[in-house]
Amino acid sequence: MEMEGIGGLRHLFMTVFLHGFASFMVIPAITDITMLALCPGQDECSLAIYLSGFQQAMIGLGTVVMTPLIGNLSDVYGRKSLLTIPMTLSIVPLAILAYSRKTSFFYAYYVLRTVTALVGEGSINCLTLAYVADNVSERERISAFGILAGFTSAAFVCGTLAARFLSTALTFQVAAFGSMLSTIYMRIFLKESLTGDDSTLRQPILKGGVPEVVDEGDVYSPKTIQVFKKIPSPGDLISLLRSSKILSQAAVVSFFQSLAEGGMQASLMYFLKARFHFNKNQFADLMLIIGISGTISQLLFMPMLATAIGEEKLLPIGLIMGSMNMFLNSISWAVWVPYAATLFSVFGFLVQPSIRSIASKQVGPNDQGKAQGCISGISSFANIVSPLIFSPLTALFLSEEAPFYFPGFSILCIGLATMIAFVQSLMIRASPHKTSNTICVESP
Length: 444
Hints:
Blueprint: H1 10-25, H2 27-38, H3 46-77, H4 79-89, H5 91-99, H6 103-120, H7 123-135, H8 138-165, H9 168-189, H10 199-202, H11 234-242, H12 245-276, H13 280-309, H14 311-330, H15 337-341, H16 345-348, H17 351-360, H18 368-397, H19 409-425
């Protein structure tokens, strides 16, 4: 397919914006809804922390398998076809809470949100990144990844702003409608990035390199003996990572950065709820500042800095700033400190686009779905491990049984995980890009 450049991605950007708007709108309210359903009238609730951590771990477990699978299948059947599945499924749990927020409906939401996120949590991001790689040259790719992340941040800002002024009931109703609208828009306007003439679609991931003729009576022909490799095995993912030292280094960075990010999702809101009695509006205000910082960073700073210094240097800058954000949050002594700490997140948003761009340049054009799926799978594995570590740690240090008084100790540990990623990122050096299409293929 001929490269269309960044300008040809406008419908993808709109799809990402609409879907992100619907998804992010409910985040400020979900903590209060969870606490109200499980521990009404309390500011500290270990059950809510553990259930949220369990959900995050289950979602991570599912996406470890599903994201590489969907990434692989998108190299065969196209990005648009595979995007339809997770985007459609994401409508269901939002519609439940749009109808009612009673305890029984919350549990229904909890179960269905867990099940549907197994498919959609990492798949949408993986597929949109692969779509960008299909349509943009390597020279422009880092800027395109940054702009895509910028639209996600802009959706975060708009969704959070809407949640700040809408009632809880109306928030979920608008979110459900927005999720349906994004799916319909994608199906109507987004063009498939892999066309029917693409050799990847005509001859998808083969089990063997040479067609096998089984019957001399022409019952089978070489064209019909094409064995699809549907599910990438752990050996395939290891083979892909071993094909490039830089790709394996990017995977290690992605693991520890995702470990920290997952820990923040599992712990930070409950820490702020217990420490400073944050409510929906304060969560929305904080997220709004973070979202605006991310939008500015990814839409303005990222294209300029990527051209000037490259993603290999942007990556450690983003990681060190992200760790400073966590360290400052961990010692919060006043309610304004978490707001001030968000200044460091301006550069923290550079991390994921930089990792994805580095990974994208290590594989050929027909393997973008596999590469992004492998990185997403590693990130998902980190999201399994993260709540198993940080949810109990947060619950312990927010309780009266803490071994010593340090309510933000789990947040400090999250910052240390980011520092490990920072040290690894310093070892990444630019090298000639790979163009091989033989990775992630099952041995005969």
